[in-house]
Amino acid sequence: MATETKRTHKITLIPGDGIGPEVSGAVVKILETAGAATGVSFDWHTYDAGADAFAKTGEYIPKALYESIEQNKVALKGPVTTPIGGGFASINVTLRKKFDLYSNFRPIKNLPGLKTNYPGVDLIIVRENTEDLYAGLELMIVPGVAQSLKIITEKGSTRISKFAFEYARKFGRKKIHAIHKANIMKVTDGLFLDCARKVAAGFPEITYAEHIVDNTCMQLVMNPYQYDVILTENLYGDILSDLCSAFVGGLGLVPGANLGVDCAIFEAVHGSAPDIAGKDMANPTALLQSAILMLRHIDEAETADLVQKALENVYAEGNTLTKDVGGTSGTKAFADAVVAAL
Fold first, then answer.
1. pLDDT at residue 86, as a whole number
2. Distance between alpha carbon 118 and the CA centroid of its chain, in Å?
């Protein structure tokens, strides 16, 4: 019955390294099971990136991977190791710049049954993803004096502001805070705020406010419920999204999406955890929730809802959770529980 109407999506899959292949395998299994129930199938185009790819091809990001993302427009990416120092560019930053994935989208929301110090958090972080200090324009002026250039453009600031306000309007979000340090960086962060204010003027039904980034960190810890959508530059957004993940249980639980005009990459935002790789200990929740965002992006809302409900049921029951969230189960058993809940 479903075979005649089945919709097939070509997805570039980057399993990653460390725990990447384990969590990616778990997520693929869950998606394919859910897809079988909703008439959706996936044509996975799998490529290595990072340390594993370098060992095999001499390239951290093989040319064939670039071509696959260009063709398929959508990628699901596990955690990838980038060597620290030594002139190696971050794999994540390189991919974002290559495909102009200007919006980093991170929803922060509690899972049922998981006790945290901040129950009922539901906020969105929208982070500019291509410029700021992450442009990577650094030089040694003279020995002992290094310089990093902070790039903020009207184009980049305007389009990320439009993304945040259009998302808020579409999904009924009521308030946006622009986060900045314009009291010190008056030109760069001043330009960012000027663009945000101009965009905000076109959305009168959404409350617009501005907070300085250091004060925001304090305010978040004291009362995260005052925030709805956080709009910010690249570096501040990186820091704030990690901070906010702690409200709901940590980086192992929160999804990430990198969205551009043509392409999108959905990824777990935690590390590759080589110390537990191959031990059936990793929690696939972050990558699974990223895959749910991917399903919504490719207009498969029914499948996304099915997976989300199954995931939440497993957490609500609490019988088959991984050790990082207080359970005793492994990666495979957790994935099997989500499949059973489907």
1. 57
2. 21
Radius of gyration of the chain from its Cα atoms, rounded to whole angstroms: 20
Q: Is 59 helix (H, G, I), strand (E, B) or coil?
A: coil
pLDDT confidence of residue 84: 63
| pLDDT band with cut points at 50, 70 and 90 for residue 271 | confident
- Mean pLDDT score across all residues of the chain: 94
- At residue 91 the predicted structure's pLDDT band, cuts being 50, 70 and 90, is confident
With residues binned 3-state (H G I as helix, E B as strand, rest as coil), the percentages for the chain, rounded to 5, are 45, 20, 35
56: three-class secondary structure by DSSP: helix
Q: Which residues have a catalytic role annotated?
A: 134, 181, 214, 238
Which contacts of 270-274 are long-range, i.e. CB under 8 A and separated by 24 or more positions? Answer: 270/79, 271/18, 271/79, 271/81, 272/16, 272/17, 272/18, 272/19, 272/20, 272/50, 272/78, 272/79, 272/80, 272/81, 273/18, 273/19, 273/79, 274/17, 274/18, 274/19, 274/81
pLDDT of residue 54: 82
The three-point CA angle 15-16-20 to 5° equals: 80
CB count in 10 Å sphere of residue 303: 24
Task: Please name the residue ranges forming H helices in the chain.
Answer: 2-5, 20-38, 51-57, 63-72, 91-98, 154-171, 188-200, 213-222, 234-245, 285-297, 301-317, 331-341
The three-point CA angle 184-102-232 to 5° equals 30
Task: State how far the Cα of 114 lies from the Cα of 172, in Å rounded to an integer.
Answer: 26
Distance CA 167, CA 161 (A): 10
Within 10 Å of residue 120's Cβ, how many Cβ atoms?
Answer: 11
Give, as one character, the DSSP assignment of residue 90.
P
Given a cut of 60, whether residue 171 has pLDDT beyond it is yes
Residue 223 tokens, joined: 């009362």
